[in-house]
Structures are given as C-alpha cells and as structure tokens.
Amino acid sequence: MDDLELLKKDWQKKEINHPKLSYNDIHGMLWKKSSSIVKWILIISIMEILLPQVVYLFPSFWSSDGMLFYNNLGLTSPLLFLSVIYYGVVLYFILQFYKRYKEISVLDNAKNLMSKIIKTRKTVKNYVFFSLSMILLFFMTVVFYIYIDDDFIKTIELSAKDISEISKEKLENIKLLSMVIFTTVGVLFTLLVGFIYFLLYGLLLKKLNRNYKELRRLEV
Amino acid sequence: MSKELEHAFVTELECNQNVVHKVCTLYTNDRDAHNDLFQEITIQLWKAYPKFRGDAKFSTWMYRVALNTAITLYRKSKKNVKTLDYETVFFKIKADEYDPTEEQQLSLMYKAIKQLNDIDKALVFLYLEDKNYNEISETLGISEVNARVKMNRIKSKLKTILNP
Questions:
Q1: Which residues are CB-contacts of A189 (< 8 A; sequence separation ≥ 6)?
Q2: Do A17 and B92 touch (CB under 8 A)?
Q3: Per-residue CA distances from A153 to A52, A119, A177 (Å)
Q4: Is A167 on the interface with B (CB under 8 A)?
Q5: Is residue B44 within 8 Å of residue B69, measured between CB atoms?
Q6: pTM for this one?
Q7: Tens-binned pLDDT, residue by residue, of chain A (220 aa)
C-alpha cells in the first residue's frame, strides 16, 4: 500500500502536538506587527529612495564656500540639468513601485505572489542602479569641470582664502589631486552602497528566490 | 474594522486553528518559530479577511494564505533540520490506539517529509489534506499535469529517504 495513503488517514484524524490557542490568544495576535518580507521590502525601499536624495543634495548643504566652488567651476547649469532629469526619473520609479507594491496579494497563487514580489523588487533594483549611476555621473562631472577649468587658482581661492602665490607647477598638482580625490570618493561610495544593497536583498530574498526557481523549474 | 468582523474572524480562526498549526509544524522546527509563524499567518489572514466573501469555506480560504505566508512571506530562516530534537513525533499519541510498528513507520514518514524543500512540503500538505490536483495546482500556480508529475516525484523522493 502507498505509504502516503496510510499517512493521509493518520494526518486527518490526529490533532497537532501543540497547545490549542484560546480566543484571547488569537485576538491578541491581530494587532501585532507583521514581519513579512513584503513589509521589509517596503521599508528598505523607502530608505533607498530617501538616502540618495540626502547624498545628492549634499552640495547645497555645504557651506556657502562649497556652493561658490561649484559656481566658479561653472557647474550650476549642469547640476540643475542633472537634477531635473534625476527627479523626473525618481518620480517615475516611485509611481511604478507603488503600482507594483499594490498588486501584491496574499490571496494570489504562490507563483504569482512570488513573481509580483520579485517584480516590485526589480523596480527598486533599477532605481538603485540609476541612482548610483547618477551619483557617479555627478562626481565625474565635477572632475571634468575641474579638468577644463583654466583658472583653477581662482576657484579654490574662494574655498581657502589665504592662498596668495602658488607656482604653476603646484597648481597643476592641486588640480590633479582634486580630480583624484573626487574620482576615488565617487567610485568608492558607489561600490560601497552597491555592495550593501546587494547583501541586504541577497539575504532577504534568498528563500523566496529559491522557492520561485523551484516552482518555475516545474513549468519547463 | 468593526468589532463584529473582528469577533467573526477570531471565532473562525479559533475553530480552524488546526490547519494553521499543521502548516507551522511542517515549516518550523521549534516551538518559538512555530508560534512566530502562527502569528504571521494570523496577521496575514486578518489583513486579507475583508476580502473573504464567504463564497468558499473559511478553512479552504485559509490554506492559500497560510501556505503563501509560510513559503513566501515568512522571512526568518529555518534552523537546520538535522539539529532537530523537538517534536520528532508530530502528533499526540493516544494511548488506546497505540500501535508501535505503525506509529514508528508514521513517525519516520513525518521525519522524511520535514526534509523536503518548501514547495514539496506544500504539495504534500495539500495532498494530506485531501485536496484534489485542481486545487493543488490553483493554490501553487502550476498546471494540474505538473502537480501530478511533481507529486509522483515526491513520492519516490520519500521512498529514497525512507529506504536509503
């Protein structure tokens, strides 16, 4: 006889080995906080949308000297241009995220539910790629403008007012050093945020991805 | 949400809690994790309850939410099955119907099922709950044919675990 058939009979007639919960036990659970991954994705996504904003707005939080530094480099219009594109795209991502998030329903079948969660997460993934590229682009733009700035001495004079006589050679060195610093910071920052991001989602969605693959495998 | 709705929901769940306990027992290995998953399933059921129209039986409706929570939404990772020492026997054994050989065989089967992956467990669970392949395929989102094929594979997988 089929072992599972025997088990089926046993399964249905037996009570589970766990204390029965009372009405009050269950009632108390209704208002507890959910710790589902959908909720975590929402929390992390909101953080991810806010975080780059803070970083991106950084130049304007700096001292007025900092802003002058950008103005003197002639970066005002490029930054404004970048900002307009950036916020347009961010808005698009937020709307798409909201739409997909709303579509997630626990009443869906398992495969659809997983696929919708993965799609929602992909929106965030694309957003993070975009944000990181924009941050990198920002740093690269600064580097480029430093490079084409013929009058770099004047530019940094406003940041450090006591510079008086600097030899041409020294100026070239300062210029080079600034470019190296901006490039390094930009690349390191991008890599760091990217790494944290992938680690976070990798851990969070490990189980879901495994189960989704298992279900998909069946359909091939 | 109104008090009546709350009362109706808790009463229904109290009566049908065995289904949720069964899911929790399949997917967790200790009492804390069991309670944790039970709570998460309750929260998900409660959130979805306003959409429950009563066109299906409450217990039927519960299967989908409970399994979806266990397979997909529940975040905490399970502890290694091999370190399991809690509840090697799934169920209370009633003294009057105790049959050592059968009981032992069943206990081995339950242990074998716990070693299956999440999706296989879901199929076995629905099978044991006497759901037909149509219902199984709809709950998991796979075709009926594939549900059958998969179930046959699980049966042989279980045989291998039991008779290595």
A1: A55, A135, A139
A2: yes
A3: 31, 50, 13
A4: no
A5: yes
A6: 0.79
A7: 467 787 888 888 766 667 788 888 889 898 888 888 888 888 888 887 787 677 666 555 455 566 677 777 777 787 788 888 888 898 999 899 999 999 999 889 999 999 999 999 888 888 888 888 888 888 888 888 888 877 766 666 655 555 556 667 777 788 888 889 888 988 998 898 888 888 888 888 888 888 899 888 877 6
Indicate yes or no: CB of B67 within 8 angstroms of CB of A110: yes
In whole angstroms, what is the distance from residue B42 CA to residue B23 CA? Answer: 12
Q: SS3 sequence, B63-119?
A: HHHHHHHHHHHCCCCCCCHHHCCCCCCCECCCHHHCCHHHHHHHHHHHHHHHCCCHH
CATH number at B99-164: 1.10.10.10
Centroid of chain to Cα B126: 8
- The reply to whether ipTM tops 0.85 is no
Label residue B121 exposed, middle or buried (CB < 10 Å: 0-12, 13-18, 19+): buried
Residues of chain B with CATH 1.10.10.10: 99-164
What average pLDDT does chain B have?
Answer: 82
Task: Judge: A112–B13 Cβ closer than 8 Å, yes or no.
Answer: no
> In chain B, helix, strand, coil percent, each to 5?
75, 0, 25
CB atoms closer than 10 angstroms to residue B60: 15
> What topology does CATH give the domain B1-79?
Rna Polymerase Sigma Factor; Chain: A (1.10.1740)
Residues carrying CATH 1.10.1740.10, chain B? 1-79
Query: Which of A20, A106, A204 faces B65 most closely, judged by CB atoms?
Result: A106
